[in-house]
Design goal:
The chain has about 375 residues and is α/β, with parallel strands linked by helices. It has 2 domains: about 200 residues, Pyruvate-ferredoxin oxidoreductase, PFOR, domain III (Pyruvate-ferredoxin Oxidoreductase, domain 3, 3-Layer(aba) Sandwich), CATH 3.40.920; about 130 residues, Alpha-Beta Plaits (2-Layer Sandwich), CATH 3.30.70. The chain has 11 helices and 11 strands. A 7-stranded mixed sheet has the order 2-3-1-4-5-6-7. Helix 3 links the parallel strand 5 and strand 6. It starts with a strand and ends with a helix.
């Protein structure tokens, strides 16, 4: 069987149009070669929500029988290519109460290719991607995250650039000639054809060893056998008892589900200046995800495992520049900022200044028609 499959991981709603165009483009290109294909979406949970990791797939086969045989599995688990439309998703994908945090490369086949939209180097990306335990390749399309979503379409050619790069890293699925022909037919835009061809020419891959990547152990679970199944649907509640954390006597850390990590939906995170904090409690009271821990000395430390990066804390903080939302790509861990500040306040001040002053431009998504054009004008 010569079936090939592509998994596209994107941020729900914000990048829905982008993911759809990529998968549809793959199928249209495959038809140019006499192949048969199908494109379909599958979300972490339903309905699809703003920023939450979601997936679409494209599967291509030589014959309909081969295609049906492949699709008889509920989910492809040996994709030739996994496309990440946002490099911050490389830290792991949590579909919110579905499978727990999973590696971005979990469903990638051995020696497959992880294709990422990013301005970062391959070496930097590898540091935040979970170890796969098998060799694979990493390729990048040099671009900022494209939030081409349900309401506002960002016409920056990211869709066709990814299609061009796909033809380079997986020519057995679709050739560049078929990709260019399909783009011309579907988009009727010569500039998009040129963008796809340039991405094909520029695409390069880096080998990633089986033991390269983040040492973090991803969430895993065992499905219960039939003898352990209970009657009806049973969902065990999370105990909401206060946790005892060494060094935090007098502080408060709310009970949290250890397997429920919301940070994968985060594109930006709060950076906190404890030296100017007045302990007014507003960030703690208004955080919709209860991600602030109360330190023993009364400060509020954002738990980066629980923070989804919504920016409410920055919006309600009455002290100028006390809380600043910073691009997630500027960070490589989820360590406590309060612990860093308490340990060495001068060093923390330098760290904070660097994060804020050197932060790459980022937004939570597009809010109105014309915003993309405004950003391009401001950058030029």
């Amino acid at each position: 069987m010569s079936t090939g499959s592509v998994e596209v991981i994107y941020r729900g709603i914000f990048q829905k149009t982008l993911a759809k165009n990529i998968c549809r483009g793959i199928v249209f290109a495959a038809r140019k070669e006499g192949k048969i294909g199908i494109a379909f979406g599958r979300y972490g949970d339903s309905p699809e929500r703003n920023g939450i990791p979601a997936k679409q797939f494209a599967v291509v086969s030589n014959t309909e029988d081969e295609l049906q045989e492949y699709l008889s599995r509920y989910e492809p688990n040996n994709n030739d290519v996994t496309i990440s439309c946002d490099d911050t998703l490389c830290k792991g994908v949590e579909s919110w109460a579905w499978y727990g945090l999973q590696p971005i490369n979990k469903l990638l086949a051995k020696n497959g290719t992880l294709l990422v939209v990013s301005t970062q180097s391959a070496n930097k990306l590898i540091k935040i991607i979970h170890r796969k335990g098998a060799p694979y390749k990493l390729a990048t399309v040099k671009a900022a995250a494209s939030f081409s979503g349900l309401w506002v379409y960002k016409d920056d050619h990211t869709d066709v650039r990814l299609l061009g790069a796909l033809a380079k890293v997986a020519p057995h699925i679709v050739s560049i000639d078929s990709i260019l022909s399909a783009i011309k037919d579907q988009w009727k835009n010569d500039k998009k054809v040129a963008s796809a061809k340039k991405a094909y020419d520029d695409a390069s891959t880096s080998p990633v060893g089986a033991e390269q990547g983040s040492e973090e152990i991803p969430f895993s679970f065992d499905l219960p056998g039939w003898t352990k199944m209970e009657e009806g649907l049973v969902i065990r509640g999370q105990k909401s008892e206060q946790k005892n954390v060494a060094g935090w006597e007098g502080g408060y850390v709310p009970g949290r589900n250890e397997t429920f990590k919301k940070f994968s939906t985060r594109t930006m995170r709060p950076a906190i200046n404890f030296d100017t904090c007045t302990k007014c409690t507003l960030c703690w009271l208004n955080c919709p995800d209860t991600c602030f821990d109360i330190s023993p000395d009364g400060f509020y430390d954002a738990n980066m495992q629980a923070c989804c990066g919504c920016g409410v804390c920055e919006a309600v903080c009455p002290v100028e520049d006390c809380i600043t939302m910073v691009n997630e790509e500027a960070f490589e861990d989820n360590n406590s900022q309060w612990e860093m500040w308490r340990k060495d306040k001068k060093k923390y001040a330098v760290w904070l200044t660097e994060k804020i002053s050197n932060k790459p431009a980022r937004s939570h998504g597009f809010h109105h028609v014309g915003q993309y054009a405004e950003e391009i004008a401001n950058e030029s």
